[in-house]
Amino acid sequence: MTPNVGGIDKILRIVAGLALIAFALFAPAGISWSWIGWIGVVPLLTGLVGFCPFYPLLGLNSCPAKK
User: Fold this and answer.
1) Does residue 32 sit in helix, strand or coil?
2) Residue numbers of the domain that contains 23
3) How many Å is the Cα radius of gyration of the chain?
């Protein structure tokens, strides 16, 4: 697994992941779709690890490291 997520992409993924998880944790009890916030685990993990499994499928790479 070579890194394919870099710089700003990592930061955005981590922030978005944390925001979604916070929504899931702190959403009012009446909101029945607050479970969708747990999808934030995916961008959080891909941001922390630096690898997104969908990027190779799409031919993308935001990491400035040389291949």
Assistant:
1) coil
2) 7-53
3) 14
